[in-house]
Amino acid sequence: MTIAHTERTDDLSELLEAILRLSKVKAGERVCLLTTHVYDTRMTDAYRVALGRLGADAVHLVVPPRTSGTSWINPLQLDAYAQRILKDAEMVVYPRTLRQVADVSMYTPAYRDILFSGGVRWLDVMVDETAMRRLFPSAAMIDRTKRAATLVESAQEFHLTSDAGTDLRVRKRGRKAAMQVGVADEVGRWDNFGFGFVTCAPEEDQTEGVLVFDIGDSLGYFLGPYFNLLPEQVRVYWEKGRVVRIEGGAVAKSYARFLERLGKPEHYHIAHFGWGTQDKAVWGGPHFNVADWESYYGNVMIHWGHNIFDAPSRHSGLGGRNAPSADWPIPQHSGGVVLNHSLWMDGKQILDRGTIVPADLK
Ligand SMILES: [Fe+2]
């Protein structure tokens, strides 16, 4: 699954070729390179070279923007011609490059329509070249994440605690497990390059207790760039799967207002829950990015909001029931990542203060 040490990836196109080989892109395959209408040509040129070297039957699809009034909405809509092109692909590669316009949203019926079309797989590449190199998936990471996903698949309940005061129970009876390892190598699989974690969409009305974000944990983009870690505690209280109270200082008040401004009840319900398996991820500092945030080894990621994203392949997609109630604002969710937590899954200890416990999951 990894590249041999004798191979070289000096040129970006060679690195992208290695990434595409992991996802088994092969000669003659219909590959759709998807971008928004603002993109980095250095990156798309390198994909063109890589796909050409692999012999893929590739196209570059530039999806035009869509708006409602002056506001962005999801550029992919069910009625779009782009939708039909994507459904006819065997592989979609979606690099995010310049990030100046609205991205394609995954928590939408249009996204689901593509992934369930029967013959396509999809690789997101959200990270830059430096992070692609640093977070290139190792065989060990892929294997431990697969083993974790197999266990989470049949699990029913998580119990999360921390010295800072977290005491949270999360139920997932009958829900699938999902993993991200950066490899979309089978039909119906969606993945995200550089990421490494296991997760699931819990039952939307079955989370109870308190989740304490400690100093140095992260509430994600709410505070701006991901490397803005929390300067003070934020306590999030849950009843029947729903955030009912947010306590703390100025950050907690500001975050509560942020959720209120989203203005929809679905943003308060649990979306996904799991832990990070990517030992190459960093926490904080100048290179800290969204992949590090979600994948940091031994973290616990818990988000709330939309979770209908799904894919037909095993251990891919969430399959939750919290659907967006409008096409605007662009469907999203929020939440964060905590470190130094202890986690039990049906009584089996998975994490001890942020350290993975079972030998086969390390
Ligand atoms: Fe999320």
What is the structure about, briefly put?
The chain is of the alpha+beta class. Helix content is 22%, strand content 28%. The chain has two domains: 122 residues, Type I PLP-dependent aspartate aminotransferase-like (Major domain) (Aspartate Aminotransferase, domain 2, 3-Layer(aba) Sandwich); 225 residues, no CATH class.
Task: Walk me through what this model shows.
This protein has 362 residues and is an alpha+beta fold. It has 2 domains: 12-133, Type I PLP-dependent aspartate aminotransferase-like (Major domain) (Aspartate Aminotransferase, domain 2, 3-Layer(aba) Sandwich), CATH 3.40.640; 137-361, no CATH class. The chain contains 8 helices and 20 strands. The protein has helices at residues 12-22, 41-54, 81-88, 109-115, 129-134, 139-154, 250-262, 290-295; strands spanning 30-36, 57-63, 66-68, 71-73, 91-95, 121-125, 157-161, 167-171, 178-180, 190-192, 197-200, 207-213, 234-239, 242-248, 270-276, 300-305, 333-338, 342-345, 348-352, 355-356. Helix 3 runs parallel beside helix 4. The mean pLDDT is 94. The structure holds fe (ii) ion. Residues 271-272, 303, 333 line the site of fe (ii) ion (FE2). Residues 271-272, 303, 333 line the site of fe (ii) ion.
